[in-house]
């Protein structure tokens, strides 16, 4: 029961609710001032208190709505701000007249009369709306950072599962092609595009030589083969890891409670991450090689994971 009450208190104890409470206090003061002025002017109590309640509660209602207005929707926000200021000026004028009757200093009466509705409610509502907009931007930025971190983790995991042996061979071929192209370009430049070609049966003659075009790119067929080898390497690595995982489960955990599975420890033994172990277990379950339903059960069979 105490935890429920504590949760309720935390939910209610927010900046927004505190601002609304302050507005209600100012509204009570405004109701009293307006009602007192109308009573002293000769109005009947029903009219006096009715107008006081209408101005006080109306101003606090429009101010609360302004605190929740979306500043990004400028037409709506400025329309609500204009309505709040108009009602605040009306309430402030009546309250200023009420203070004139009790305060000889007219400046003090005006500050008190307009201060309660304009500063205590209108300006406070604008400040609350600005604060709410700032909090929304902060939460959006935190969500973007969290998403970026998850994407980076997923990329790191994908790169960790790549077979780098095929990648290194591809890089070596690219480096050899670049080296050949550079050597051909330097040789042609040093020779000035001329070479001596021996002619059968006669003295050597000089002929113009057009440097042979160099191919600095790997053909599409090589690229396809590289991609295929990369995919095969990754599949082989995944199958080997899952087979090793299945052997560990069959030897140490077959028949044990599911809670005994420590995925972090299994990841350390397999040289991978906890997320990868979770995916491997799901794949083995889909292949009907493993059951983790209260107890770990390794099933016989030859289905590929």
Give a quick rundown of the structure.
The protein is mostly helical. It is built from nine helices and four strands; from the N terminus they run ααααααββαααββ. The protein has a two-stranded antiparallel sheet with strand order 1-2. The chain has a two-stranded antiparallel ribbon with strand order 3-4.
How would you portray this structure in words?
The relative contact order is 0.06. The radius of gyration is 40 Å and the shape is elongated. It has 305 residues and is mainly alpha-helical. The chain has nine helices and four strands, in the order ααααααββαααββ. Helices cover 74% and strands 5% of the residues. Helix 2 packs antiparallel against helix 3 (45-67) and helix 8 crosses helix 9 (274-286). A hairpin with a 7-residue loop joins strand 1 and strand 2 (205-208). Mean pLDDT is 78; it is low at 194-219. A two-stranded antiparallel sheet has the order 1-2.
**Contiguous runs where pLDDT drops below 50 for at least 5 residues:** 194-219
Beginning-to-end CA distance, first to last residue? 49 Å
Give a quick account of the main beta sheet: strands, pairing sense, barrel closure.
2 strands, antiparallel
The secondary-structure class comes to mainly alpha
Number of helices: 9
Please provide the count of β strands: 4
Tell me the β content. under 5%
In helices, the fraction of residues equals over 70%
